[in-house]
């Protein structure tokens, strides 16, 4: 899927006026710094929801985030504010897309941005095959979102003591 395909509007949950869905370039230091800050704020809220404050992304450095082999799609205001983003990688040989993270700035919660980004990614950013994503098992807003989008819950797992994760798969 080309960057131009991802940048066009999608048939998703309506977003607030003045919001654009576009690919994010993390080689731009300002964009990367903004994305990192949004992620930290979003993961801090998730930490409270699941009762676990050592989520790995909360200690991830800006540099470590920037060098990850991911593609990034954002919900961005016309003024350039990143309100939400999704990051993923696709193994085209195995037809598997792994969603690494979905983050919404708490100031933009409850406006359908995560739904819109995932709708957009599923419609234009992935090919046929599996789409996988994990979230804290106690993160009920994320659990509800993935199930509403048709993801099926697999076995929960505990990557570190005290952090129970729910894994989801969507077959396309």
Supply the number of helical segments. 5
Query: Which range best describes the helical content: under 10%, 10-25%, 25-40%, 40-55%, 55-70% or over 70%?
Result: 25-40%
- Summed over residues and divided by their number, the pLDDT gives a mean of 90
Order of helices and strands: HEHHEEEHEHEEE
Binned strand content: 25-35%
Radius of gyration: 15 Å
Unreliable segments of 5+ consecutive residues: 1-10
- Terminal residue distance: 16 Å
Query: How many extended strands?
Result: 8
Shape summary: globular
Major pleated sheet: 8 strands, mixed
Structural class determined from secondary elements: alpha+beta
Can you give a write-up of this model?
- Residues 1-10 have low confidence and may be disordered.
- It contains five helices and eight strands.
- It has helices at residues 3-7, 29-50, 62-66, 113-125, 140-148, and strands at 19-23, 71-77, 82-91, 96-104, 130-136, 152-153, 157-160, 163-171.
- The protein is an alpha+beta fold and 172 residues long.
- Strands 1, 2, 3, 4, 5, 6, 7 and 8 form an eight-stranded mixed sheet that branches.
């Amino acid at each position: 899927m080309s960057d131009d395909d991802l940048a066009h509007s999608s048939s998703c949950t309506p977003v607030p006026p003045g919001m654009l869905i576009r690919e994010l370039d993390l080689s731009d230091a300002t964009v990367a710094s903004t994305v990192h800050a949004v992620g930290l704020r979003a993961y801090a809220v998730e930490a409270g929801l699941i009762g676990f404050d050592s989520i790995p992304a909360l200690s991830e450095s800006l540099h470590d985030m920037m060098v990850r082999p991911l593609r990034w799609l954002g919900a961005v205001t016309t003024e350039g504010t990143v309100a939400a983003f999704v990051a993923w990688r696709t193994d085209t040989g195995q037809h598997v897309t792994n969603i690494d993270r979905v983050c919404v700035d708490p100031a933009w919660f409850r406006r359908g941005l995560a739904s819109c980004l995932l709708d957009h990614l599923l419609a234009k950013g992935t090919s046929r095959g599996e789409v996988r994503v994990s979230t804290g098992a106690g993160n009920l807003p994320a659990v509800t979102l993935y199930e509403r989008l048709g993801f099926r819950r697999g076995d929960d797992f505990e990557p570190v003591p005290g952090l129970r994760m729910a894994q989801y798969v969507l077959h396309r």
